[in-house]
Amino acid sequence: MGDEGKADAIAQNIERAAQRRPNTTPEHETITRDTNIIQTRYINPLHTIPVLDDNGFLLGDSHAIMIYLIETYGNDCSLYPDDVKKRARINQMLHFDSGTIFVRQLRICLPLFITDVKVIPEENLNALIEAYGFLETFLQNSTYIAGDSLSIADFSLIATVTNASALVPLDEDEYPRICAWRKLLEALPYYYINKTGGAAFKALLEEELSK
């Protein structure tokens, strides 16, 4: 099966998994800015999104949510396989996302969004550039983030990289592996979800920088 066929199969499995979710209202609740602060603290003390409400089971953090959904409702375990070594590699890259590149992006974004500071310190930009270098190296011997097949590590990191590139654009000559990997994911039939989110983030960033 070619890459396009694999992508279609994965998309179908994601759709089937979504159809098997508990039939409650709301099925999966995402916290918004308008959510009452008391309710927000009850659902997620960190006040962050996304948050999953699966028939009363509350779970925060996108990485944990993806693992839970696959193990509970997924038909295609290739996104998070049972093989211990493959799963360990995926976990490594999920932690790289949450502990390295996302944190460095956040260090740039938070002051822009919650303070009057509109100048990005050079050391913060350099830290994000360094994280790009790490990611380029990780992709040196594999097609996808955690190996030669698509996994939830790719889903996690493409969102972070898309937003980070609004802060520090990716140069294809400097980061050819990252850019090639990004093009692979852009061909997926459900990539539009990430594209929409990335465009919204970029618009918000540009609005803040223009103030």
Automatic annotation (TrEMBL):
User: What Pfam families has UniProt attached to this entry?
Assistant: GST_C (PF00043), GST_N_3 (PF13417)
Query: According to the lineage, what is the superkingdom?
Result: Eukaryota
Can you say what this protein is called? Answer: Uncharacterized protein
Q: Where is the GST C-terminal domain?
A: 83-211
Per UniProt, residues of the GST N-terminal domain are: 1-77
User: Assembly and partners?
Assistant: Homodimer.
The record ties this protein, via CDD domains, to: GST_C_Delta_Epsilon
The protein's matches in InterPro entries, at most eight in alphabetical order, are given as: Glutathione-S-Trfase_C-like, Glutathione-S-Trfase_C_sf, Glutathione_S-Trfase, Glutathione_S-Trfase_N, GST_C, Thioredoxin-like_sf
